[in-house]
Amino acid sequence: IPEGPGSLKYDDLLMLDADTGSLTTLLAPGSGGDFLISPDGLKAALTGPDSISLVTTDGAFLRADAITFTPIITYSEYQYYPIGQWMPDSSAVGFAIPSSDPLAADTRGTIWRLPADGGPAVNLAAIAGGFFFTQSTLPAVSPNLDWVAFLRETGSPNVRMTSAVMSLVDADDPAVMITTSHSDKARAAASFRTSNWSLKIP
User: Fold this and answer.
1) Rg (Cα) of the chain, in Å, rounded?
2) Spatial CA neighbour of 175 closest among 164, 184, 185, 161
3) SS3 200
4) What is the spatial distance between Cα 32 and Cα 141, in angstroms, rounded to a whole number?
5) Using an 8 Å Cβ cutoff, are 68 and 50 in contact?
6) Is the distance from CB of 78 to CB of 6 less than 8 angstroms?
7) Which region, left, alpha or beta, applies to residue 169 given φ > 0 means left and ψ of -120 to 50 means alpha?
8) Coil, helix or strand for 132?
9) How many of the other CB atoms lie within 10 Å of CB of 71?
């Protein structure tokens, strides 16, 4: 039995029959992870602390370790699992993977598109900015996977502010589309999480 602080995850995958109440193990501990089911209910993205896989909802792997990355330092006892965004038509799922150290001076996010047909994941962009603090419960990519949200330090060298930014994934120079800024990342991230994609995208 594991002991000590932190969030314990078994990284398995279970299926609960809502009619009978029976519980079936689809993937054993260590073979699954957090899951995000596609809108059509046929597939799921499995996320772990260093990889993302694509499976059917009966537990069959379509592409194991489709995306791999260096584990993100959380400066706490828990491990970071990426939060994805399925496209409405279930054709692909997107992720914005933060750089490994969210407190480093040169943070960035890598934007991925994982096709639902089992094809290889596509690296869409690597964008400078903070992608860790905005993704505690919500994804950083829009439902159509064209837009991405993150934090970026602005202001003068003497007065550093953190702005919430929304930008097209392929934009050369992301624009600050939310004008409120804060002196600390936690407050900027909190204000950002209250926004809604449908209200903010032009």
Assistant:
1) 18
2) 164
3) helix
4) 23
5) yes
6) yes
7) alpha
8) coil
9) 12
Identify the residue whose tokens are 């772990």. 48
> What is the rounded CA–CA span in Å between residue 93 and residue 39?
10
Tokens of 149: 């949200």
Closest by alpha carbon to 44, among 54, 34, 52? 54
Give 78-124 pLDDT, tens digit per residue.
Answer: 999 999 999 999 999 999 999 999 999 889 999 999 999 999 999 99
Task: Name the pTM for this structure.
Answer: 0.83
Rounded CA-CA distance 150/106 in Å is: 13
Q: What are the DSSP calls for 19-75, one per residue?
A: TT--EEEEE-TTS--EEEE-TTSSEEEEE-SSEEEEEETTS-EEEEEEEE-PPPP-S
- Closest Cα to residue 140, out of 174, 159, 132, 68? 132
Q: What DSSP state is assigned to residue 130?
A: B
Question: Distance between CA atoms of 197 and 191, rounded to whole angstroms?
Answer: 14
